[in-house]
Amino acid sequence: MSRPIPTWEPLSPEVLADQLGAYDRMRATCPLAESPRGVTLFRHADVVAAATDPARFSSAATARRAVPNAIDPPEHAAWRTLTDPFFAPARIAALEPRVRAIAEAIVSALPRGVDLDAVAVIGAPLAVRAQTEWLGWHGIEDSLLAWMADNHDATRSGDRARTAEVAAAFDEIVRVQLRRRRGMGAAAPEDPTTELMRATMDGRPLDEADIVSVLRNWTAGDLASMAAALGVVVRFLATHPEVQQDLRARPAGLAAAIDEMLRIDDPFLVNRRLTTTALRIGEHELEAGTRVYLNWTSANRDESVFGDPDAYRPERNAAHNLVYGIGIHACPGRPLATMELVVATQVLLQATSCLEPAADAAPVRETYPLGGWRSVPVRLR
Ligand code: HEM
After folding, report:
1. Alpha helix locations (H) across the chain?
2. 213-233: per-residue pLDDT in tens?
């Protein structure tokens, strides 16, 4: 027998006012819940099961082709084979000093002893400048920052026409980069953008639409996740002075520490799937063609796996951490994201003796499609 799926409204003012609390409450009462947008999975075990079962949970859940995010097996593997080497350890290591120089320039320009919004003055500029440095897109930092804000508003509005318009605006940002390189011919800069344009699959050059899509997925969603992730890290450090002092003295622990801070307050909320067949989750039946949301933020706080979700335990929790996903679509950009977050945090800790919450300004939570913090007022000392 199938029990009806409880309903909820993930974009209601109550949920948006406290996403973490709302997800915690939903998870405690039901494994899944339905809204007109689709069915959300809240529990760790269900999210892992869906993410590791691409045959029954297809990623082709978006209106248009997104490479590799919305590609299913067997084509998906060929795209990962082609794109994963861009994030190989040697490449990330080679980029590290350039990201460090950017982080040092951003942090050294910040005034001391006054209230600053860490997301606006550290997170967003670092994400954009590191990305343009990596891809060779220098000079367009301001248009990327403006685009990030537009994209966020459009996604939240749920207005398909507006989302499509903003997506088209991003494609144009990418196409300008491609045209510039084509115009330069053999003199085009040796960077990942040029390399992708020269790549082949089965001996054939890639379609321009696919190149644009890969670059969009390397940039569009992840600039905002990177900025939000830095906000989460800075807020955690400012409110946990003992962890802050420990990491100042022991920077080798930063990668694991940051993963755990992001587990507690995962800014990358959900990804979509489409069921390819009728299936059961617990006592509930889902029809074929149901749109399903994997709620990473909720799964990362599941008490049955992590105990107290707010307890900071990097070593204990690492094996079950879902911040970068799991299964064939697990984040290929993780080495790049981790390097940028570690470098930025290390630079910030080394340049200060103390990072504390601002005295006169309260932090503001971010809302769907992102989690974490929209603004994190802090003082550097
Ligand atoms: C803190 C930062 C980041 C977080 C939390 C994050 C998280 C995730 C998660 C949870 C997924 C799984 C999606 C799914 O299963 O449907 C994913 C996929 C992906 N991420 Fe990230 N990501 C981050 C940064 C990056 C960066 C910097 C890049 C590239 C430059 C990147 C590129 C991608 C791509 C291309 C996919 C799709 C992979 C596939 O479908 O095979 N991400 N990411």
Report:
1. 13-17, 19-29, 44-51, 75-83, 89-108, 118, 124-135, 141-157, 160-184, 192-198, 208-239, 241-249, 254-264, 296-299, 303-306, 314-317, 334-350
2. 999 999 876 788 899 999 999
Question: Is there a contact between 269 and 296 (Cβ–Cβ < 8 Å)?
Answer: yes
Q: What is the dihedral of CA 15, 16, 21, 22, to 10 degrees?
A: 20
Ligand 1 within 6 A of 79 CB?
no
Which CATH architecture does the domain made up of 13-380 adopt?
A: Orthogonal Bundle (1.10)
Domain boundaries, the chain: 13-380
**Per-residue pLDDT at 221:** 65
* 235 CA to centre of ligand 1 in angstroms: 22
Q: Whose CA is nearest to atom 17 of ligand 1?
A: 331
- If you measure from the C-alpha of residue 266 to the centroid of ligand 1, how many angstroms do you get, rounded to a whole number? 13
Nearest ligand 1 atom to the CA of 322 is 10
What tens digit of pLDDT does each residue of 330-374 get? 999 999 999 999 999 999 999 999 999 998 899 999 999 899 999
Task: Report the predicted TM-score, pTM, of the whole model to 2 decimal places.
Answer: 0.96
- Judge if the beta carbon of residue 137 lies within 6 A of ligand 1: no
Exposed, middle or buried: residue 373 (CB in 10 Å: 0-12, 13-18, 19+)?
buried
Read off φ and ψ for residue 108, nearest 5 degrees: -70, -25
Protein residue whose Cα sits closest to atom 7 of ligand 1: 324
Q: Whose CA is nearest to atom 16 of ligand 1?
A: 271
Is any ligand 1 atom within 6 A of the Cβ of residue 83? no
217 lines ligand 1 (CB under 6 A): yes
The atom number, within ligand 1, closest to the CA of 271 reads 16
Ligand 1 site, residue 336, Cβ cutoff 6 A: yes
- pLDDT tens digits along 179-189: 999 999 999 99
